[in-house]
Every structure is written in C-alpha cells, then in structure tokens.
Specification:
18 helices; 41% helix
Length: 506
C-alpha cells in the first residue's frame, strides 16, 4: 500500500488537515468506482510547527488521535465510514516516541533565537552587518527578530523561517521519512503564502527533497521523481489590530505576491492548488502563537482539504512526475456569495463527497441522539453487538467525542462572521424529518405528510436487519461502522430522487 504524506505547515496547515480528517471519515464510504484508488493509500498527516503549544496544532492532533481510535484496524475497511487508515509518522517511519505522535519533531530547545541558529556572536563583521540589516529592528529585545524566541514560531516572518527551515535535513525524522519514501507514494505540502512557518517551510522542504544529494538524504532518485503537491493557502482572514504586535495583517498581500512570484519559477512542485478569498473581511483575534492561536474553521480550509483528494485522483495513473508544473484553483458551482452549501461544490468534487458526507452527517445525528441513552433498548442491533456494555466502551467514548468535534467544526464553518460561510446542513435540526429537509441548497425538497418517516427509525430498522447476519471475522467495532454506513446510506437513498442524488450502495 502506498503512503500519502500530508505535511501541514503552521496554523493554516493544521486547520486544513482538520477539515481533511472529517472529509476522510466520510469519503471512506464511497462506492464510486472513480475513487476506488483511495483504498490503495495510507494517509500520514504530519504537523510542522516550532510552536508546540499552538492551539490549532493541539486541536488537530487531538482529532487525529480520535480518528485512529475509531478507524478500521486489521481489516479491509473500504466502503465504510472511517475505513481509510490514518497513521502517524512515528508509526510509518519507525521513529522513537509515541505511535500517536503526528509532529515532525522540530525543536528549538537548544537554539532559542535566530541569533543562536546563525551563530551571530561568532560571525565575522560583514556577516553580522548583513544579519543586522535583514533581521534587527529598533524594538526591544523581546520584539527584535534577531533575538526573539523561536519557540512560538516565526511571527509571520518568512525570511526568519527560511533560515531555520533550511536546516530540516538535519532532523532524524526527515531522514527516516526519505528512507521510507517509495516511487508510488504522494506528498502534499499545505502552507499559507502569507505567514511565517508555511511560507518559508514548504518551498524549502520541496527544494530539499528534490535537490539534496544522497550523502545528505537517502533515496535521491525517488525524491527527484515523486509527485509533490502544494496547497497554497492565500489570505482569507485578517487580525484585530495590535500596534505593538509583530504580525502585521497589512503585510499579508505583499508577502503573498512575493510567494506567488517565487512559485512561478519554482521547479520542485508537480501540482499547486491555490485556495483563498477575494476579501479579508473575516477577522480573528490577534495572536502571535501559543494556545491563544486557535482560529475558527473556514471554507477555504475545507476546499484546501478537498484538493488533496483531487491531487490523488489526477495522479492515480502517473506515479512518476514528468517535470512539468500544473497550477489549479477551485471553481465553485455558483456565483460569488457570502453563504455556500453542498450544491455549491464543484461537480467534479461532489462526486466523492455529496452522498457520503450527507450519510456521514446522518450517522453523527444518530449518535448524538442515541449514544447518551447507552443503547438501552433491547432489539436485534443492541443484542447482536452486545451494545449493553459495548455502548459505553472506550471506542464509543472516542466515537461520541469525534461527533462532538464534528458539529463544532460545522458550526464554525457556518458562523455568520466567516466570509464566506459554508452552511451545508441546518444546525438546529433534531427530528428525522427536519434533518432530511435540513440539507441546505435543495430548496424544492419537502417531505409530504405520508413521507415523513423518522430518520432514526429507518436507520435502526436497517441496523436490526443487518444484525441478523453478524460476521465472526470482524470485531464489534468494525461491524458497528459497517452497519452504520449501510443504514445511513439506505436512509438517504430512500429520498435520493428528491435532492437529487445518486446513492451507491454496492
């Protein structure tokens, strides 16, 4: 099985990976033959950030660990929710440390400032003068780029990050990653074009992979030819004003123009996906890193996550890069608006996500309505899977926690403060009829009086039917995910002509 390595640089990279995890959970259930190739990949998300306490990074790490606890283990789970595997870099590359560590492992503990990284004090006069010109300011030592601590990242300074990121080849985790890399693997780098960590790290990392000699990093021939995609996140938010702060929102566009000019002549990416918005009306609280940097989820990050699947699709028959760069941007299926929904998605993308995501959403609604009861009702489904005890197991605690985070993610995407906002579902729908009708964008769909089936009743009927034929080759967890996938898809297929959708069950 090939690996798809997804490097998320900085806060924006972490948030795109967050959206990717939710999409992967639903896309795992696809029966669309055009996406059968997804079953050939293990997904390896890797967070690249010096800021170890970054709120976005912590949030995404917790989500990745939840997916691992729920996801299919030891069996072929394709065609079922959570069926496509996520593994950590530690697990795939046999690194020391916990198997649920998704961090690349860059540390600045022994070199706390840029001055220490470049050995400023021992540099000759000319080098020190150049460093002063590039990095020194008239600010206090704490605000000076040359002497500031790097433990919270690069404060939006790609010129600072480029110096530090140029040393990535010294990291054991990077060498082990290159040693594990195979020709049929894929690499995705996700980075903002207007920050510090991503703007500096992604192009340098790609250049290092392509050009580093065998004496520095192993498998040079593989590195030269492997398909590498960049998801370039363009400015899509601003920050509240902080006159004393080091991150300046008014510099976002300047930095982005410089980055785009550089990418035009960059020969190390096989594909670049540009995602962003035209305006910067979404505003987040000012933060220079740490636990306070936890921005809400945004449609731009969701589209960035979708581009990963598109990259895998268009390269599925071309393992080797032909040396040409292909650039892409995302086209929505409607005119510019401040609010988007599921039919807004490009038809090429919706073929994977539309029916699977709606069924996935049904599963989440069923979970939040029924798990608190502990599956106390005695019927075939509960009895067959022994849910009396299983329903309060560690698996179900993680499963329930995942859905809690999913609905928070949806709520953030649909927040009116986001521009544009993405509102695929009615967030207040609780009853089955309301959930059916609460799939936004299908304005003509209303259930009649005699069609007003209870969504949960349809799901539970299917679950009970499936429980009559329990396979002893699967664990209860695997059976539960398989049963829930088919039950929610059947519930959606009952009214597929109303939306309209094409729901594939086989």
């Amino acid at each position: 099985m090939a690996n798809c390595y997804i490097f998320g640089f900085g806060g924006s990279g972490a948030r795109v990976i967050e959206s990717f995890v939710f999409l992967l959970g639903s896309a795992s259930a696809t029966r669309n033959p055009d996406y059968a190739f997804l079953a050939g990949y293990t997904f390896v998300p890797i967070l690249v950030d010096l800021d170890q306490t970054n709120g976005n990074k912590t949030k995404t790490t917790d989500l990745l660990r939840l997916y691992q606890k729920i996801g299919w283990k030891g069996a072929d789970g394709k065609g079922n929710f959570f069926g496509l595997p996520i593994k950590s870099i530690n697990e795939v590359c046999s690194l020391s440390g916990p198997l649920d560590n998704f961090d690349l492992g860059i540390r600045m503990d022994n070199q706390g400032s840029l001055a220490e990284v470049i050995d400023y004090e021992n540099s000759d006069v000319d080098d020190r003068a150049l460093s002063d010109l590039l990095f020194k300011t008239n600010r206090s030592k704490e605000k000076d780029l040359l002497n500031m601590s790097l433990s919270k990242g690069f404060k939006g300074g790609p010129h600072v990050g480029s110096v530090v990121m140029s040393k990535l080849s010294d990291e054991e985790s990077v060498r082990n990653f290159c040693n594990k890399l195979n020709a049929d693997d894929r690499i995705v780098l996700i980075a903002s074009a207007f920050g510090g960590t991503g703007a500096a790290g992604a192009p340098l990392f790609a250049r290092m992979l392509r050009d580093a000699p065998e004496s520095v990093l192993p498998k040079q021939n593989v590195r030269k030819n492997v398909q590498i995609s960049l998801v370039s996140v363009l400015p899509y938010f601003s920050l509240t004003d902080d006159k004393e702060g080091m991150v300046k929102p008014n510099s976002f566009m300047i930095k982005t123009k410089a980055a785009l000019t550089f990418y035009t002549n960059h020969k190390d990416f096989s594909h670049i996906y540009y995602v962003g918005t035209k305006g910067l009306t979404t505003q987040y609280p000012y933060s220079e890193g740490g636990s306070t940097q936890e921005n809400q989820s945004h449609l731009v990050e969701l589209i960035g996550a979708m581009s990963i699947f598109e990259f895998l699709k268009i390269t599925k028959d071309n393992a080797t890069w032909d040396g040409r760069l292909q650039g892409w941007d995302y086209g929505l299926n409607q005119d510019l608006s401040t609010v988007f929904n599921l039919p807004s998605l490009d038809p090429a993308t919706s073929g994977l996500f539309l029916d699977n995501w709606i069924a996935f959403h049904f599963a989440g609604k069923y979970c939040k309505a029924n798990l608190p009861k502990g599956f106390s009702s005695q019927n075939g489904f509960v009895d067959g899977l022994k849910l009396g005890n299983f329903g309060v197991s560690a698996f179900f605690i993680s499963y329930n926690d995942f859905w809690t985070r999913y609905f928070v993610w949806l709520d953030e995407l649909s927040n009116k403060g986001q521009d544009p906002s993405f509102v695929p579902f009615s967030m207040n729908a609780v009853k089955g009829k309301d959930i059916y009708e609460g799939i936004n964008g299908f304005n003509s769909f209303k259930l009649g009086f005699f069609d007003a089936d209870n969504l949960f009743g349809i799901i539970e009927t299917s679950l009970n039917e499936q429980a009559k034929n329990i396979s002893k080759a699967m664990t209860n967890e695997q059976l539960f995910l398989q049963f829930m996938t088919l039950a929610t898809k059947k519930a959606l297929k009952k009214y597929e002509n109303k939306y309209p959708l094409k729901v594939l069950l086989d």
